[in-house]
Amino acid sequence: MPDATQLESNEPEMESSLHYAQLALLVACLEWLWRDRTDFFIGANLTVYFSREQLKNRDFRGPDFFLVNQTQRRPRKSWVVWEEGGQYPDLIIELLSPATAKTDRSLKKVLYQDRFRTPEYFWFSPETLEFEGYRLVGQHYDVIAPNEVNQRWSEVLGLFLGVQDETLRYFHPSGELVPTPEEAAAAAQERGDRLAEQLKALGVEPEV
Q1: pTM for this structure?
Q2: Which of 66, 96, 134, 156 could pair with 101 in a Cys bridge, judged by C-beta atoms 3.0 to 4.6 Å apart?
């Protein structure tokens, strides 16, 4: 049996550039929003090893995106449940593709519900924009109903998830979009430029 702390991820390449871009977006936005926190881990196309029997059978399961709260924010080669105090993901997002959609909607949903007991499970198709969400209530997943703008509330994140410009994005409770680092920098620059213009109109030279 290999040293569990050194288990490498065993996930296949993602299906398309759309899937890569969507995954990178989900990771970048949440890491930027929580940049001052050290108590979470984000897995991106990373294997979750949940039993030693699974290793023997090579029955690997790697969510496209998963979040674990109340853990150390540090690099990992994979997520090994028995090396992490028995912690499973708190939230999982699968990115549907023609090759994986059936498994994501059925086998993986049952696994995350019955074995992982993951509190929230979402899936999204970057191609068709299909978007669904489920929350664990008792022993079973219940559908998370969308609001009037088709966003679904995540209790784990404290944010809405919704589709904007054909991508899955995070939204604050106020409805404000959680930006990418680049969008945040551009917005800050725009605010600075507006302030400079206002000061100039008042005859005040901005400090250098």
Answers
A1: 0.86
A2: 96
